[in-house]
Amino acid sequence: MKGRSFWFQVFGFLFSCAFFAYHTKGFQQKMMTPGVLILCAAVSLGLLLFVWFRYVDKPSSDFLHAINRAIGGDYRARFSCCPENNNFRQLSAAFNWLMERVEKQTDELTESHRLESQLYENEKIYRSALELTCERVFEADLTHNRLLYGYETYQKLFSFSHIEMFEDLICKLAEQSVYPQDKERFLKAFNRNNLLKTFHACGKPEVTLEFRQKLPCGDIEWVSASVIRCCTTESGLKVIGYVKNIDTRKRKELEILKQSQKDGLTGIYNKRCTQSQIESFLCNSGNSGCHAAIMLDIDNFKRINDTFGHIQGDTVLSIFAQKLSSLFRSSDIVGRIGGDEFFVLMKSCTSAEVLKEKLNELKKAFEEIRLEDSDDRVTGSIGVALYPKDGTKYQELYKKSDIALYYSKSHGKNQYHIYTDQMNHVSKNVPKTLFQNPAT
Fold first, then answer.
1. Number of domains in the chain
2. Of 63, 65, 70, 76, whose CA–CA distance to 104 is shortest?
3. Claim: this prediction has a pTM higher than 0.70
């Protein structure tokens, strides 16, 4: 023992020596009464018991009590002893540090459980709200590729076999219920790897896609599917997805868009849409092919309006637009770019014979139009520029097909010509309006 316990023992020894010396008259008497011996022994023993209780028994008891409290779940239990009790003081410091760490982690764990419980309740509320407004709702663990909730609603509609993997559900939907033209976009948007990249790397909270869905009855309807990042925990990234029926709204939007792209009189593309469609095609899938840019206009159209009236002129334009559309594929771009001027991009035109055959059909289409109360024939002039030989941009093709058109008009009308560089000298006398920027 150290510190005070040492001095207590020294005091007990000195007290016994002094008491013994007093009763033996300075240690002169050899005999001492039993009472004196008992008293000396009692004092020494009492001091030893006091030291034992204070420095061994009581700290041990307090330490065991603190341990029992901790075992019982009281992580605020602490143990303390007198500073001079060096061994127990070190034990006390270590135990108290341990309990502080346990208490802190327990509090953090309790708070984490509370937040998870609250989040789970919020998820249930959010999911219930979605189920009231959406056709289908699902919940998935993207990290472990597990479908947690909502499979039954898909099974009822599409008769899937039992599916537990999120990625399998997406593949099944793409295969059985997504319109073929939208399948690639659907897989790109909702495959598991893309979602993980979007939520983790890009930090986006939601992925949404509008696509066409095939129903078991054979109908096609527009739906909007969204996947929302719900929470990221130690167990993984959870998401909630839902599908809404937007068929009525989407069809109205497409109709409005279609009307904004169409020429009001003829029903084919208007000037602005014709240009944007051709530019988009040439910049993307059409940049590696061979195409024909065909400009057409009706010969002496002003005379038709002045002689037969604008109503008859509009009828001629409408009939010719219908014939023009029927002569070309649905993938070709057909538009009206001026009063009596039309512009066509004939895609993938790799054969000169096919092009000339088509141009002859166009001449014939002009001649098939009849004017009321007249034997006069309607004729038209045609100019052609080739991609990529004559240009790779819309404006280049527009300008050179316009030059070829003017060449046809200046050489008697009712004919077609394909652009050559020798036609450039003719363009010097062309009115400037023919070469203004076609964008309006």
1. 3
2. 76
3. no
